[in-house]
What we know:
Elements: E1 2-8, E2 11-20, H1 25-38, E3 45-49, E4 53-56, H2 58-74, E5 78-81, H3 85-93, E6 101-103, H4 106-115
Parallel strand pairs: 2-3, 2-4, 3-5, 5-6
Antiparallel strand pairs: 1-2
Helix pairs in contact: 1-2
Amino acid sequence: MKVTSTHQRNTLILTPKGRIDHAAAEAFSVALTPYLADCQSGGNLLILDFSEVEYVSSVGLRALMLAARQVKTQGGKIAIAAPTPLVGEVFEVCRFNLVLSLFDSVDAALANFAVE
C-alpha cells in the first residue's frame, strides 16, 4: 500500500493508492500509524484523500474506524475527501459518514477545517 503525504497549512493530506482490502488493510494501518500520533489537539489536522482508492472492504473500514477512534481520543480531527464513486457508495451504504466526515474534494475538507 503506497501512501503519499503533503502539507497545506496545518493540515496533513495523505493519499493512499490502490485497494484497502484484506491483503492491504494491515499495510494501510501501518502506513497511517506515524501520522495519527501527530493528529491531536493543537497538532496536524488529517485529511485522507481517497481519490486514488479503488475499493475498500470491511477490513479497510475497520482500519479507518480504529484510526478515527484514535484521533478522536487524542482530540484531533480527521476526514475523508474525494472518494471514488465505488468507495463513496460503500461509505454511503455502511453509513460511514457517522464515523468520519466525508467531503467531495480535498478543497472542501480544507475549507471545512478552516471554518472550525
